[in-house]
Amino acid sequence: MVITRKPVSLILSAFVSLFSVVALANPVSDSTHATAKPVHEAHAVANDTAHAVETHAEAGHETTHGGAVNEKEEVQAYIEHHLQDSHDFYFFADGESGKHYGFSLPVILWDNGLKFFSSSKFHNEKELAEVDGNFYKMVHGKIYKSDAEGAVAYDEHNHPTNVKPIDFSITKNVLSMLVVSGMLLFMFTSLARSYKRGPVPTGFGRILEPLIIFIRDEVAIPNIGEKKYRKFMGFLLTVFFFIWLLNLLGMTPLGINVTGNIAVTICLAVFTYIITQFSANKDYWGHIFWMPGVPVPMKIILAPIELLGTLTKPFALLIRLFANITAGHVVIMSLLAMIFVGKNLAADMPISIGLTLFISVIELLVAFLQAFIFTMLSSLFIGMAVQDHHHDDHEHHDGLDYTDNSIV
User: Fold this and answer.
1) In contact, 87 and 31? CB cutoff 8 Å
2) How far apart are CA 373 and CA 361, in angstroms?
């Protein structure tokens, strides 16, 4: 198992914290990103033409709401924006000029045919993209069909009612997952090639091999069994390294919150669920629908409960990963916000930076721990489904085997 050197962790945490301070001090004010208002207020503003968004559009990006994020509502909106996915990948913004430094990502829509264009088309005064005679408008990160004027209709709950095309866009989270997938492919193929040259891996394989052995000896074999674990090692290793690298990527100044996205954790949990159910043997299903040694009336009552239990296991997986990673990002951003919300800058800054560094170091541990827990529980659920159950013909009561008068 790799032990991260303490100085490296402190340097990385300091870099993350200082970059976050700069980003928080210069919030995004471009029309393609969240303004300094909460989401529910933004919905209401969409129906109220007197809001500053219209003023911003009419002024041709002569923004009137730039400047530092120094109000509690603005900080809350900034944190919510940080946690969300985006069609743009930007590094930082100039709060005074409203300029962004980054790059746009491709938008791929299915609307009576494939529509492919860059998200930079939304970066205009009307936030409207025209493609093949069709008009599309982005509202809170979602793309809807519109008209040449960019009109969007809302229901009584302030939700857009415009037609929403099927979106296959390469968003910030998707790009991050593709990058991590490429890293995994490179890492494991390099390790496989190094084994062809000899029994001892070389280069980065020397770091990767102990981690693989750790997952095999401490996770897969104890939970699944020595006879059946090899079948599931590919999935367990992929899940572990995929989640771990995404968590570490979220600790960089890029601030990507992939595993804090509920859709991503749902997909990971669904894979565990599918593998568990399709690998289960007849003993597993027998214990769910017709438990041995239980009276028939109780079997009828408990069968639906046991069936529901197969769904609660992956639900616990996805909620645990989502909640822990999201909480870490919220805590760090909230601690940094103390600098700008507080009135005493000289007193608040050392406390805020110190607490942020401390939490960042803990988050490096959490990044590994959450990947390990997800992998551990996945292997445990798979092991419960594939293990063989042996039922003796004689009776057992209170832990006593009355056939030989010995304690079991």
Assistant:
1) no
2) 19
Paired strand residues for 145: 136
Cβ proximity of 193 and 208 under 8 Å: no
Q: In angstroms, rounded to a whole number, what is the distance separating the alpha carbons of residues 83 and 80?
A: 5
Whether pTM exceeds 0.90: no
Q: Tell me if 259 sits within 8 A of 370, measured CB to CB.
A: yes
Query: What are the residues facing 136 on neighbouring strands?
Result: 129, 145
Q: Could you tell me the residue ranges of all domains in the chain? A: 106-169, 174-386
Pairwise CA distance, residues 173 & 258, whole Å: 5
Left if phi > 0, otherwise alpha if psi is -120 to 50, otherwise beta: which for 127? left
Q: Smallest Cα–Cα separation from 396: which of 388, 405, 387, 386?
A: 405
Contact between 396 and 404 (Cβ < 8 Å): no
pLDDT tens column, 136-183: 988 877 888 888 888 888 888 888 888 889 888 898 889 999 999 999
Number of H helices, E strands in the chain: 12, 11
What pLDDT digit, counting tens, does each position of 334-344 carry? 887 777 776 66
